Amino acid sequence: MAQRHTIESINYPYLHISWQVRGVEQQGWAYLDTGFDGHLAVPESMLAELGLPDYLTPYRLVGEQRIWAPSYEGSLTLLGFDPSFPASIVALGTELLLGRHLIDRFTVTFDHGQRLEVQE
Description:
Number of strands: 10
Oligomer: single chain
Largest sheet: 6 strands, mixed, barrel
CATH architecture: Beta Barrel
Order of helices and strands: EEEEEEEEHEE
Structural class: mainly beta
Strand order of the largest sheet: 2-3-8-4-7-6
CATH superfamily: Acid Proteases
Number of helices: 1
Distance between the termini: 14 Å
CATH class: Mainly Beta
Number of domains: 1
CATH topology: Cathepsin D, subunit A, domain 1
């Protein structure tokens, strides 16, 4: 049986990521948000230089509020893993949020609030 590649983050519950939209690449620490169904949410200020979004995506926020958020087609990489994944990157919130669309591709272990382990 092949050994699975693992990355570990002691910056719990954040993972170091990079993402690219329209040739612009950025890196940061993204909070693993198991309640967010998308790929990646970033503050709108981080996407402002890209101009008009590729599309608008409907989201339901806490308290049942519905909004349409600007979204961009891009790619996303968990630093420490080779492949990048196509991703919808939405301008939403105040910090980087890594959602279920990406993390469901991996085995994720939340280790007692101390560290985060991700396996391919």
